[in-house]
Amino acid sequence: IDFSKASFKDFESIPDMNVFQRAGFFKDFTDYMEVEGRMNYGFVTHDGCGPEIFLSTPFQQTPKRCISLVSNDYLSFTQHPKVKAAAIEGLQKYGTGAGASPLIGGHHEYHTKLENKLSTFFDRSKGSSMVYTTGYTANSATLLSMLKNNDCAIVDMAVHASVYEGLLETNIKRFPHNNLDYLERALSEVQSKYHTRIVIIDGVYSQDGDLAKMDEIYKLTKHYGAFLMVDDAHGIGVLGKRGRGVIEMFDLLNKVDIISGTLSKAFGHIGGFIISKPEVINYLKFQSRQYVFSSNSTPAMNGLLVALDLIDEEPEWRARLSENVTYFKKGLLDMRLDVGITESPIIPIKIGDAHKTGIAARLLLKAGVYANAIIYPGVSRKDARIRTSLMATHTKEHLDKALTDSIMSIESWVFPKANKLYLGA
Ligand code: PMP
């Protein structure tokens, strides 16, 4: 394998190498990437969870104060005093763990309260929701237990990895991102072939920050008698008048067949959930191996009961986040940087070349901004970018510092077109 052209996928199987030899070879590869500056920062260690963190990396051992543009803690609820107090109260009342998997004694009062609250949050009846240990599991486990040989998933190519993992035992049709013509073609091709046809989309797409064309997708899906599942991990809590996400924006809260979401982003905790008809939830609770044979979240999830209330009681967090998004995006656009088609707090700075993107991320870090370089296979090979995401508690000073001290200071060769335009050349 030529390391200079290799990607992680090339190490999945190598002739004549057993798994331990492959792991050794892969270690050589990640070391090479590190030295060449082509890896982001590998696994960084940092202190602090807010908009400012202390961060150290393999090439920068002393922790350095940075502005963080990597967190999905959009509303900064991980730091909200009421959320923290409720989490601590949960731990004090119930202890530190669930003690067993849900079906055999690990389904506690706090799990039931959260399920009921989630049903109410989405204007659904009691029994319409369930909680998984992560958002990733909510998608993969739900789909794995529902879709088999006689079924077919029709997926937007840009859906999250957890959806793809859920489709290992069923038939798949992919359609290019948000492309309604291809979707319609796929729906009509499979219409009489499979018992279940389910279209699966994200609400907000996690790399470009753009939204699903949900109203048109919903109409097409129903026209062809299929079901619709929406993973709105990045939208719920953040977008929509009442913070119910992209599904609310399109007025489809009571119409989407399956909603999946995470508790680890806007709600500031960990876990994932599914909202659907009570009979589907019942099915999943008995049939989903990852639910049946695995312990569920800890009593600290008591904090989530408050976080869900705060979405209604303190809409100012959403408003502050939205102001930050407008301000930061304008700052980037004023520098003629390419932010793509984002409509959410995920704002990419598109560069294209993976090597340049890696170097840009390091230069940003040197200038005091922590933002991720996203390269293949996270995005396609020529679409590497720095991905930024904003929080409600970023101040104007944070954003100005990130924009002027750091992003603008990047060498002109990283963003040649942008800088040329910026300098009026
Ligand atoms: N869906 C999407 C669209 C995501 O971006 C993510 C997390 N990156 C997940 C699901 C998984 O969520 P969690 O971190 O709770 O596993």
TrEMBL record:
Keywords: Ligase, Pyridoxal phosphate, Transferase. SUPFAM superfamilies: PLP-dependent transferases (SSF53383). Pathway: Lipid metabolism. It comes from the Bacteria. Its cofactor is pyridoxal 5'-phosphate. Belongs to the class-II pyridoxal-phosphate-dependent aminotransferase family. The lineage of its organism: Bacteria, Pseudomonadati, Bacteroidota, Bacteroidia, Marinilabiliales. This is 8-amino-7-oxononanoate synthase/2-amino-3-ketobutyrate coenzyme A ligase. One of its GO terms (molecular function) is pyridoxal phosphate binding. Residues 65-403 form the Aminotransferase class I/classII large domain.
